[in-house]
Design a protein that fits this description.
Structural class of chain B: mainly beta
Largest interface: A-B, 23 and 23 residues
Helix content of chain A: under 10%
Helix content of chain B: under 10%
Radius of gyration of chain B: 13 Å
Shape of chain B: globular
Number of helices of chain B: 0
Number of helices of chain A: 0
Largest sheet of chain A: 7 strands, mixed
Low-confidence stretches of chain B: none
Number of strands of chain B: 11
Oligomer: heterodimer
Largest sheet of chain B: 7 strands, mixed
Mean pLDDT of chain A: 96
């Protein structure tokens, strides 16, 4: 199975900061990596597909990059509504999707 | 707009079977896509469980293959999860979600239903 490792586990930031969240795959997955945001007591929401492709309705401050084994979700100028959990998901081993353990973005 | 809504018993005893329903509105589950079950354990770990496709084919997570069944009722635009021989380790929030069959990301999710396994 492909294992996704997200880091850091927790990231404490001040609104207005720009941040980068990491997702590392245990083997190359090309660009088959997707990012989700989950706010408290809500279901996950798709933010980025295929490592860097934007999703309609998602603010432009969210961007993704990477390929192979190393991926990054960047948030340019974090807003208070951005705090919550972030997960990556790989689709390289279709149809057996796996998720990373998540990064919690919290207010400093 | 596409909406998914889970429903279920909330509490199941160990060794019993759990049955959950996902009701889809705004899109026919026989038109396209895969219709998935995903669960989230306490502590936030997410696990893909399986799907039923628009054509009725199924695929399951190998770790669950002996216990899981996903079926559907096309007349009600619903699909179902059955998980047999549950243990306390099956305590989780269960989500239904839509994905492509080749574009394998989850673009619509239900709100989730919490299931506790306890005697």
């Amino acid at each position: 199975d492909i294992v996704l490792t997200q880091s850091p586990a927790t990231l404490s930031v001040t609104p207005g900061d720009s941040v980068s969240l990491s997702c590392r795959a245990s083997q190359s997955i090309s660009n088959n990596l997707h990012w989700y945001q989950q706010k408290s007591h809500e279901s996950p929401r798709l933010l980025i597909k295929y490592a860097s492709q934007s999703i309609s309705g998602i603010p432009s401050r969210f961007s993704g990059s990477g390929s192979g084994t190393d991926f990054t979700l960047s948030i340019n100028s974090v807003e208070t509504e951005d705090f919550g959990m972030y997960f990556c998901q790989q689709s390289n081993s279709w149809p057996h999707a796996t998720f990373g353990g998540g990064t919690k973005l919290e207010i400093k | 707009d596409v909406q998914l809504q889970e429903s279920g018993p909330g509490l199941v005893k160990p060794s019993q079977s759990l049955s959950l329903t996902c009701t889809v509105t705004g899109y026919s589950i026989t038109s396209d896509y895969a219709w998935n079950w995903i669960r989230q354990f306490p502590g936030n770990k997410l696990e893909w469980m399986g799907y039923i496709s628009y054509s009725g084919s199924t695929s399951y997570n190998p770790s669950l293959k002996s216990r899981i069944s996903i079926t559907r009722d096309t007349s009600k635009n619903q699909f179902f999860l059955q998980l047999n021989s549950v243990t306390t380790e099956d305590t989780a929030t269960y989500y239904c979600a839509r994905s492509g069959l080749r574009l394998w990301y989850f673009d619509y999710w239900g709100q989730g239903t919490t299931l506790t396994v306890s005697s």
